[in-house]
Amino acid sequence: MQDEGEPANPAGGVSNRLMDIIVAALMMLFGAVVMVESYELGAGWSPTGPESGYFPFYVGLLILVSSTATVVASLFTRSPDRASFVEPRQFKLVLQVLIPATVFVVAISYIGIYVAGGLFIAFFMWWLGKYPLHIAAPVSVLIPVALFFLFEVWFLISLPKGPLESSLGY
Questions:
Q1: Dihedral angle computed from the Cα positions of residues 144, 148, 154 and 160, in that order, rounded to the nearest 10 degrees
Q2: What residue ranges do the domains of the chain occupy?
């Protein structure tokens, strides 16, 4: 039953309260994993000082305790926030960035960061920025080329390369 004055969730989507609980529960799990791994490394105090897992253990404990407090507060509050976490229009905007970004990350392992980055820049300039291709194309080529010279040639930092860079001898 909904309290008076409490905003409804008209779209029937996920509420802020439920998202608070889900994220806090995931953070509790993360904190517990950090604690267990840190304990296995050694989370105590040795004669020479703290062991490797000492500080990460207590950071994990802090994450676990604060996330537990968030779950408890979300479950037992007198006026839970049942407003919609995200409206469909807002969610569409998030997906417009999330899906291409995910494709970009996957593409890096197949075609390298420079080619994937160029395609990513071109796509976003054309699709979301509404730039004409005659403007998007040079920018999406020049930026990865500049970054290639910056990292690979001048700073000698190797980033993931694909077939194009391999064919050029890098």
A1: 130
A2: 16-76, 88-167
